[in-house]
Amino acid sequence: MLRVPQVLRGAQTAGLSSSRLAKSLSTSSVCQQKELVELFIDDQPVQVPPGTTVLQAAAKIGIEIPRFCYHERLAVAGNCRMCLVEIEKQLKPVAACAMPVMKGWRVKTNSDLTRRAREGVMEFLLVNHPLDCPICDQGGECDLQDQSMAFGSDRSRFTDIDFKLSGNIIDLCPVGALTSKPYAFVARPWETRRTDSIDISDAVGSNIVVSSRTGEVLRILPRVNEEVNEEWISDKARFACDGLKRQRLITPMVRTQGKLENVEWESALMAAAQGLQNVPKDKTAVIAGKLADAESLVVLKDLVNKLGGEALATEQSYPTDGAGIDLRSSYLLNNKIQNVEEADAVLLIGTNPRYEAPLINTRLRKGYLHGEQNIGVIGPKVDLTYQYQHLGQSPEIINQLINNQHPFNDTLKNAKKPMIILGAELLARADGAKILSATQELAKALGDHTKASPDWKVLNILHTNASQVAALDLGYGTSTVSQIKQSQPKVLFLLGADDSNITREDFPNTFIVYIGSHGDRGATIADVVLAGAAYTEKTGSYVNTEGRAQQTGAALTPPGMARPDWKIVRALAEFSGVDLPYDNLSEVRDRIAEIAPHLVRYGEVEPANFFAQALELSRQFFMTDVVSRASPTMAKCIQAVLKQRIQLLDGWSSVSSSTSPELPSDSTFSPRAVSFCLYSISLVSWSDRSSRRSSWSFLSFSSSSLVSFNFFSSSIDTWLSFSCRATTIDLYSESCDSKSWILLLDFCNSSEESSIFI
Questions:
Q1: Are 126 and 148 spatial neighbours (Cβ–Cβ below 8 Å)?
Q2: Which CATH class, in words, describes the domain spanning 328-462?
Q3: pLDDT tops 70 at residue 160
Q4: In what order do the strands lie in the sheet with 216-222?
């Protein structure tokens, strides 16, 4: 029979046990008439006869020690080890039920060592215990239940994994030991609807399954596609789905007297159509966001072209001149993703695939581990989870490789399948065209030297935006964001463009129309906001970085009055008197096929025609688009990262950005790069916590990993989001005399208020 401690069974039962032990000690004392042994248990003195165990001595003074196998009328076994206690000057805990007392001992029954020992014993007892407690006859009077609650650990042990694919462990676990925390207790699989789709958080185009119920996406799971993502997805793709229901635009809005107000669709389209009237032919421009689908891209392109506009830009600018050869080969990952691991020598230029494309990074790691792949990196030195040779940060190294003046030349030229992976974000620099041209020349030289198979391509461009390749295929890129700023168009369309770092001050006399799904930065500066659908709410075409056309599936209907983007543009064209020759999705795709037939050949890769193909770190992994920025789960991920990195700096010192010609490890923000809605942020001074500062601007910041910060309130007019490449940011107050460093203490989500303490 198992005995129960006093703290669990109540005074009556425990008292009976204690009285039995005390009576036994008293009887023994009378019979033997020996000299008593004095010891201290939890600093309480007690005298007992020689041969008394520690457990019996503790019971004499009313201290209960947990046990399972001990019974006062049975022989001592000492099997369960639950009665471990700490004795001073002993090397390790001892079993109280089997250890006779000694004079002068100091026993601790509730020390940290004792508690940890009991928790460990309880964990071992429970590790193989059947989970039948709800139907067990002993339930409610079980010593194991009671003692596990009283003396066991109150939490499970989890180890942080700094890995952007850690969520895949959930899929590997065949039981419920490892589960998705956001999905826990939400639904059962048979209650959800599964829809095949693709991930658009990066340019890989991982195949996914969207599980939804009652108009809400509950979780994202991977879908097997050996040619793209195998059976893995990134953590951002898996866990950012809770951002699909937050910060959503559910009604059209029109700015009236400086404030956005909800209106009906007819009123919003009429207001937008009026803004398009009497606009000069060359004064209409488009900036396409990173999540735009091919259907909305082509419809908006046709509308703007018929209005006389030719300025079609993407958020991430891309050089179009390069080396003057086949353009499509100059912006594709020309080898298939599955072939990346076959390369025996890889040169990474201005890219960090661990963040920009985690699933391509796993292919590289696989090639390194199993194929002895030699990898070189030009750019900032980063952790890629595998060894590589760091060649430096200067673009001049590319010219050294072309001229056979670098030791890594031997590695590249001795390779049978050399590969160059060039980061698209690097090419957005002012000298991006020169870097692309030099890389194309290097790729051509390697291709001619190695005599690789015609199917093997040396030059490969790694994009980070899901919409970029389709946009370039459809004719976008004729202008850049900076060129549009300089041209000052009369009408500017923002197609989900929230990361172009533009402000209302950049376009003081421009009529701005925003089409998108979330109330992000683009919506805050628009004159008309047209509520669009998210990628899980529409059937849309996307082309990944290797040129593979795929499509998303509509898992649910758009919320409120939101509609698919291409339908919004088509309706706007009708209100504006512009005739577009399509009315349904099939006809829109026919139009796409006229421009780029490969965009509607889903699942296929259209290869580039020319064989001799001619950094900054990725933006913060967990928050790179409107969906992930609206995700509380992603905010918690950012917060966990910051807890390891954030620093509080004393005093004031100016930390200026690097201006060297090397590939940048940081960036520069002008005071106008961030649009502040000051009344949505709480600014509290160290010296006077009741004061509010009204004028703030960036001066400089320390070089570190990119971090995105989000602040928003219930009104779209009081929403702020900005990104910077720093963990400690130097701010200057124009309205006070003192200057201080700040520490960003916390992140916000949809239910928490943000504060900056300075």
A1: yes
A2: alpha beta
A3: yes
A4: 193-198, 207-213, 216-222
- Length of the chain, in residues: 758
Q: How far is CA 402 from CA 407, 412, 434, in A?
A: 12, 11, 14
Q: Which helix (H) or strand (E) holds 190?
A: none
CA distances to 34, 59, 107 from 38, rounded to whole Å, are 13, 15, 12
Domain limits of the chain? 6-151, 168-245, 259-316+468-600, 328-462, 646-757
Question: Interior CA angle at 230 toward 226 and 231, to 5°?
Answer: 135
- Does the domain at 259-316+468-600 match CATH 3.40.50.2300? Answer given as no
Give CA–CA dist 356/620, Å, rounded: 9
For residue 441, pLDDT over 80 is answered with: yes
Q: Mind listing the pLDDT tens digit for each residue in 163-208?
A: 788 899 999 998 888 889 899 899 999 999 999 999 999 999 999 9
Torsion sign across C-alpha atoms 480, 542, 294, 326: positive
Mean pLDDT of 559-573: 96
The reported pLDDT for the residue numbered 644 is 53
Cβ–Cβ < 8 Å for 554, 536? yes
462 closest CA partner among 316, 342, 298: 316
Show contacts of 407-411: CB within 8 Å, 24+ apart.
Answer: 408/347, 408/376, 411/345, 411/374, 411/376
Instruction: Return d(Cα 594, Cα 553) in angstroms, integer.
Output: 23
User: d(Cα 235, Cα 169) in Å, to the nearest integer?
Assistant: 11
Q: Kindly state the average pLDDT of the residues 500-510.
A: 91
Q: At what angle do helices 294-306 and 585-595 cross, to 10 degrees?
A: 70
Mean pLDDT for 427-444 is 90
CA nearest to 380, candidates 161, 621, 667? 667
Helix axes 143-151, 112-127, angle to 10 degrees: 140
Nearest alpha carbon to residue 708 among 544, 521, 523: 521
**Alpha helices for 106-219 (secondary structure H):** 112-127, 143-151, 168-172
Considering only the top CATH level, what class is 6-151? alpha beta
How many CB atoms are closer than 10 A to CB 91?
Answer: 6
Q: In this structure, which amino acid lies at residue 441?
A: E
565-575 vs 265-275: helix axis angle to the nearest 10?
60
Distance CA 195, CA 554 (A): 7
Q: For residue 426, list its beta bridge partners.
A: none
Contact 110, 42 (CB under 8 A): yes
The one-letter amino acid at 547: G
310 contacts 422 by C-beta, under 8 angstroms = no
* pLDDT over 80 at 320, yes or no: no
CA of 450: how far to CAs of 188, 401, 441, 607, in Å? 55, 15, 14, 20
**512-564 pLDDT per residue, tens:** 999 999 999 999 999 999 999 999 999 999 999 999 999 999 999 999 999 99
The pLDDT of residue 277 is above 70: yes
Helices H, strands E: what count in the chain? Answer: 21, 28
Of 707 and 40, more confident: 40
SS3 295: helix
Amino acid at 627: V
The DSSP string of 249-291 is --S-EEEETTEEEE--HHHHHHHHHHHTTT--TT-EEEEE-TT
SS3 call for 721: strand
Helix (H) or strand (E) holding 223, with range, is none
Beta strand 94-95 pairing with 84-87: antiparallel
User: Is residue 104 over pLDDT 80?
Assistant: yes
